[in-house]
Prior knowledge:
globular; Rossmann fold; eight-stranded mixed β-sheet
Amino acid sequence: MRIGVLGGSFNPIHIGHLNTAQEVAGLLNMDRIYFTVSAQPPHKTTDSLIDGDHRYRMVELAVQDNPLFFPSRIELDREGPSYTIDTMRHFRDKFGGDIYFIVGQDAMEDVGSWKSAATLLKTFNFVVTTRPGHDSSALLDVLQSVLDIKYNNVKLKSIGKTRNGPYETIKVAGASAVIELVNVTPLDISSSMIRARVRRGDTIKYLVPAAVERYLIEEKVIPV
């Protein structure tokens, strides 16, 4: 099976997360996508984090009607910070080698600060979600630095078309893994926006799934 792993704090999950996963699944023929809820994101403060069990429950509610989507609490149940390389090793051991980590381009450009970044990039496939008109040069700079390679060893080629434009594959010499750059529909929604609207008493209808909206209101998981 081809497995996608979409990691994040999902603080809370919203339709932007779901749309990204759906488009990636369709474009790259994913059999399953696991929404992996972070316990302690190493690069984020935990001050504004909703309790992990609440965040996981909202992910469950958000994906319950999609046969491609599955919730995962592997990071919540593992002690310590949530490192991507540990999570990807878990999914590789469970499903085999055709595993892709799904991440936005902004986050991917910070991959040099991730645990065992070079090993991670050489070992596991990535899907980097971009917007139409994106510039790949910054990401190539990061890859060159992390992997200690030269530009002529990085092959960047167009391999197909999406409805938003071409998508590309970055293949690093000497590594079996690939990095797919995929255009997804830009939706200007964030978890921080959702939390702020809840605190103000504004509606979040159509920004999150209806079941998540009900859960946030009924359980009062965001302090007002």
